[in-house]
Amino acid sequence: MAVVSTPPTLERALPVMDNAEVLRIRNDFPVLNQLVNGQPLVYLDSGATSQNPLSVIEAEQEFYEQRNAAVHRGAHHLAVEATEVFEDARQTIADFIGADYAETIWTSNATEGLNLISYALSNAGLWAAQGRGDAGLKELALNPGDEIVVTEMEHHANLIPWQELAFRTGATLRYIPIDDAGSLRMDLADGIIGGRTRVLAFTHASNVLGTINPVAELVGLARKAGALVVLDACQSAPHLPLDVKGLDVDFAVFSGHKMLAPTGIGVLYGKQELLDILPPFLTGGSMITTVTMERAEYLPAPQRFEAGTQRISQAVALAAAANYLTETGLDRIHQWEAGLGQRMVAGLESIPGIRVLGPAAGEERIGLAAFDVEGVHAHDVGQFLDSKGIAVRVGHHCAQPLHRRLGLTATTRASAYLYNTTHDVDQFLDAVAGVRAYFRA
């Protein structure tokens, strides 16, 4: 499959995806063409890690075969070419999320991006106290009495960094609770996000519930309070069109390995005016202007936050993944996956002894479903499905507080992507229907 970007006007003209197209798409993914326990692989764990198309694999391989060199550091031919493809990849990702070039920072994953923001904000207080850096740092510094707000459905990666920021600064961590159905209590949010709120961090789409959160409403409350907005886009960037400027968030993060790219690469978006004044998180080479034995001066973003040798081949591969998704059409992918998600939920709800988390059938969700099987531990469910060649995720999905709120310790999660068919979902549902009988629950 070619990897050139498709203009949005052409994307809208493309037909709705169907099983025949998905089967053609599957041919681009070598790992899907195998047997597991004697059964054709049904991969329903893309919410954890997606698979890689040939174009992405070949992009990384081609870099090592033809252009491998350090970027920004050499005048020789390979170094120049490596720098060009590395920075071209940055522009591709900026375009993919509706950002500007200098607002797009490479990280190892979304977790690193969230820690980067957290530590940069605490360093802002240290710098401001010493009269160092931009005068605007004082406005970004957190102090005792300030508040950080998250939600009860957050992945640990968007919870623990804010717990630690509160610990370092004396700020208070608060959260918007969920109701019994797993939806945010937006009726309480206005009373939680208030005059003391300095940061609001929340997930765009829940990795457990499948819920798509009301970004515009949450951002509106944050703007009213004068708070920064941090968006965890790990479960949205791979699956639906993402326009960070249109959403008016201050920061956003996502990981490449969930959107057809290799592991070890992620992206942090930040508004230019914030990135250029925030203190760096990691320090060393490649992100400085001048160094003496006493102090250093730092480059503006994006290099300001990219110390040391970067994830060059992974960035190139991530750009190839973004092009693959753009060519296929993210609107079409989202529509297809939403249909698969509805098929999963409706099927699961019809099976006795199954409790599905998140929105009920017919309500909006992304293409995943987490569920509990009465009388059978999630790990046993996962092993039973694996015996039939079906790959799912089991455990608390790095969301222990969410599971605890819903009275559970672990669930089984099936998550679809653009290479899954309705037949995959039906095989999964047939297998789940046999779980309780197999374990005599």
Note down, in words, how this protein is organized.
It catalyses: (sulfur carrier)-H + L-cysteine = (sulfur carrier)-SH + L-alanine. It comes from Pseudarthrobacter scleromae. InterPro entries: Aminotrans_V_dom, Aminotrans_V_PyrdxlP_BS, Cys_dSase_SufS, PyrdxlP-dep_Trfase, PyrdxlP-dep_Trfase_major, PyrdxlP-dep_Trfase_small. Belongs to the class-V pyridoxal-phosphate-dependent aminotransferase family. Csd subfamily. With 441 residues, this protein is α/β, with parallel strands linked by helices. The protein folds into two domains: 152 residues, Aspartate Aminotransferase, domain 1 (Alpha-Beta Complex); 265 residues, 3-Layer(aba) Sandwich (Aspartate Aminotransferase, domain 2). It is 40% helix and 15% strand. The strands form five sheets. The chain has a seven-stranded mixed β-sheet, sandwiched between helices. Strands 13-14-17-16 form a four-stranded antiparallel β-sheet, covered by helices on one side. A two-stranded antiparallel sheet has the order 1-2. Strand 5, helix 7 and strand 6 form a beta-alpha-beta unit. The longest helix has 21 residues.
Tell me the distance between the termini: 47 Å
Characterize the main sheet: 7 strands, mixed
Identify the strand order in the major beta sheet: 4-10-9-8-7-5-6
Given this structure, which CATH class of the largest domain is correct? Alpha Beta
CATH homology superfamily of the largest domain: Type I PLP-dependent aspartate aminotransferase-like (Major domain)
The count of strands amounts to 17
Proportion of residues in extended strands:
15-25%
Helix content: 40-55%
Radius of gyration: 22 Å
Report the uncertain regions: 1-12
As for the number of domains, it is: 2
Enzyme class: transferase
Cofactor: pyridoxal 5'-phosphate
InterPro entries: Aminotrans_V_dom, Aminotrans_V_PyrdxlP_BS, Cys_dSase_SufS, PyrdxlP-dep_Trfase, PyrdxlP-dep_Trfase_major, PyrdxlP-dep_Trfase_small
Function: Catalyzes the removal of elemental sulfur and selenium atoms from L-cysteine, L-cystine, L-selenocysteine, and L-selenocystine to produce L-alanine.
